[in-house]
Specification:
The protein has 3 domains: 1-48; 49-109 and 153-192; 110-151, no CATH class. The strands form 3 sheets. Strands 2-9-8-5 form a 4-stranded antiparallel β-sheet, with helices on one face. Helices cover 40% and strands 33% of the residues. By secondary structure, it is of the alpha+beta class.
């Protein structure tokens, strides 16, 4: 009996430790997010040009093309200013125009299904007529139900920017899905 209680207490302590560790991770993530957001607000308040923004996930090898400092940690926030020009939210980001978006959505097919009808009939047939009844019962029609759905998968797309001061075009890879693509196209793409 005492061993059983000891095992339950140990299990309870392990669960409490796991929850505490998970809460620390969540709090650390929240603290980092709040710190990054405060930095973002300071930068954008100093520019006094904010209209809207979107967070994009940029391929690490493309960060230098955007002028991000080495070892930058934080948001990759694309910001639209009052003039319609874009910039990324770090001090010294060049003024940009988004002139093209290349995106091909990818989907994963998920199929769920079950087969029913034979087992129950075979059991009833065996109970009534023995082995021959089981064979007869299992020879009936099977009922097959399947459900298929498509789930969108995040995939890399290409954004073509024009740096306004140099008139230089460059392309960066970003993670896109339909929602991010639609928002970039409607709110950030320049239609010149």
């Amino acid at each position: 009996m005492w061993i059983f209680l000891l095992i339950i207490c140990c299990f309870g302590l392990m669960v409490c430790y796991s929850i505490t560790k998970n809460n620390r991770k969540i709090n650390a993530d929240r603290e980092l997010h709040n710190k990054n957001y405060r930095i973002f607000k300071e930068i954008e308040d100093a520019r006094d040009d904010y209209v809207t923004d979107i967070i994009v996930q940029i391929k690490a090898s493309d960060l230098p093309k955007l002028g991000y400092p080495d070892n930058y940690i934080g948001f990759y926030d694309l910001v639209k200013g009052k003039s319609g020009n874009l910039h990324f939210s770090y001090t010294g980001s060049p003024e940009l125009k988004l002139i093209d978006i290349e995106y091909m959505p990818e989907y994963q097919q998920i199929t769920n299904g079950n087969v029913s009808g034979k087992t129950g009939s075979a059991i009833v047939g065996t109970a009534i007529l023995g082995g021959a009844g089981g064979v007869i019962g299992s020879s009936g029609k099977r009922k097959i139900n399947t459900t298929s759905t498509q789930k969108e998968i995040n995939t890399f797309g290409l954004l073509t920017f024009l740096e306004i001061s140099t008139n230089k075009k460059f392309i960066v890879s970003v993670v896109l899905n339909k929602a991010v693509y639609t928002r970039l196209k409607s709110d950030f793409l320049t239609l010149d």
